[in-house]
Design a protein that fits this description.
The complex is a heterodimer of chains A (about 70) and B (about 500). By secondary structure, chain A is mainly β. Chain A is built from no helices and 7 strands. Helices cover about 0% and strands about 60% of the residues of chain A. A 7-stranded antiparallel beta sheet of chain A has the order 6-1-2-3-4-5-7, with no helix packed on it. Chain A is globular and about 30 Å long. Chain A starts with a strand and ends with a strand. Chain B has 21 helices and 14 strands. In chain B, strand 8, helix 12 and strand 9 form a beta-alpha-beta unit. In chain B, helix 6 runs parallel beside helix 8, helix 13 runs antiparallel to helix 14 and helix 14 runs parallel beside helix 20. Chain B starts with 5 loop residues before the first helix and ends with a helix. Chains A and B meet through loops of A and helix 12 and helix 17 of B. Bound molecules: iron/sulfur cluster (SF4). The site of iron/sulfur cluster has 6 residues of chain B, from loops.
Chain lengths: ~70, ~500
Amino acid sequence: MPEVMFRKGDNDQLIFYVAKKDLEETVVSLEFQQPDKWGGEMVLSDGQRYYLAPLDAPPKLPITLRVKRAE
Amino acid sequence: MAALTREETEALIQEVLEVYPDKAKKDRAKHLAVNDPSVEKSSKCITSNRKSLPGVMTIRGCAYAGSKGVVWGPIKDMIHISHGPVGCGQYSRAGRRNYYVGTTGINTFGTMNFTSDFQEKDIVFGGDKKLTKLIGEIETLFPLNKGISVQSECPIGLIGDDIEAVSKKVAAEIKKPIVPVRCEGFRGVSQSLGHHIANDAVRDWVLGNRDGDSSFQSTPYDVAVIGDYNIGGDAWASRTLLEEMGLRVVAQWSGDGTISEIELTPKVKLNLIHCYRSMNYIARHMEEKYAIPWMEYNFFGPTKIAESLRKIAAHFDETIQAGAEKVIARYTAEYEAVIAKYKPRLQGKKVMLYIGGLRPRHVIGAYEDLGMEVVGTGYEFAHNDDYDRTIKEMGNATLLYDDVTGYEFEEFVKRMKPDLIGSGIKEKYIFQKLGVPFRQMHSWDYSGPYHGYDGFAIFARDMDMTINNPCWKQITAPWKKAASAEGAQRVAASA
Ligand code: SF4
């Protein structure tokens, strides 16, 4: 369960950053992006998949959250 | 156009790897790559930030070097205790050339070495008492210090001293910040983890000191320069440009910097990151906690400077944008004259670099402005995000080497025959004896600054005076000259 910092990149894409693992990837798809639900399964540009327990509202970025590796 | 084709470069890597035992060969192969600018993610072609192999000559430093030498050391009004045996601090003392103004020993302490000088009995009985006593002595002898940092050397972690407890207790007594930094040299694979630990220590012990205090008058144009260590005056040459375009530089991290500048940084509007590798952590933290955006910039060479000034200005209003254009226009004549003078002397020269965590990619533009070409580059302690940023800067089929070993570097140089090598002091004399012009690119070879327009003029002059120095023709003794022509052929054949 890595701690991930999500932030907005230069072109408004969502960046997924794990300092300990040197991982800086773009999120290419995120399951829920509605005003009342944000999170779910996400796919990174290198194909890795993670799961974030959905939040009740889109967070103010950047934010550090815990995610799980998706099955 | 690269010096060698893709196939030739690949063949060269294979040839150099040939001498290693199988296991080492497999490992080192992952760190050497032929550049392909179309690749998006460096992780596909190069591995970095891994432990160096035992037995090879690596050029890396330790976590203590990353924290004490790089991040904390330049903060001039604090005293940085090298906590442990005397050597770590003494042998690296004042070697980094981070300039500062102030009176050394009175209100600034940059070039001095403070150490707890561990002896056997401190290892056996612990050094916490000694640390307490030492801080007391510092307070008596140097009362104008604004704070103290405790930079752990290897033994501190091994014997399990509690420097945090000592720091907290004594800080309460003397009412100054005392920052314990757990940067023991054995942590991590290179100085890079030391940068991270140092960033975290700044975050935990200093950055929040003025939260909730709004007495500082901020302006909409406040910025902080982060990751500029003022080597030979670099930060000063950068700062003038930012100020000329109308910005106010509140803090310099950490070249010529002070602890109060660091405490004020959460009040700025934008963080400007020069050395991404050593200070991106704190910038990311400030973005999350204080909502301060950050951006990377590059002040090497007029092309990149103009690009960066415009990119910085885009974060502000029209006054600043006009200011940026004014600055660029103002210096145009100056840098064009520099290029007109040196480009004809340097055109087409090939450069190989092997430096720390930022310059292997940042200086490429400056060389290109002079008509030179970087044919190989590599980092001591980069991570993949650095190589992501490098691939785009380098030409097709150029050579990339991560944590290069002494042997590999020498062989690459023999084959690629660059006209100039830019690396550190440990490499300098080997290559000079091989007859290859060499510049130290960590300490600017006792010159500098190289940042900014002013720095570019010095950079161009230095490169010219190194490459076109008549001494390179005198490398072979006169009585060996006749023989050397065929000797050179033999070397080429056997290499
Ligand atoms: S590795 Fe340890 S002993 Fe060596 S310089 Fe670094 S801190 Fe000192």
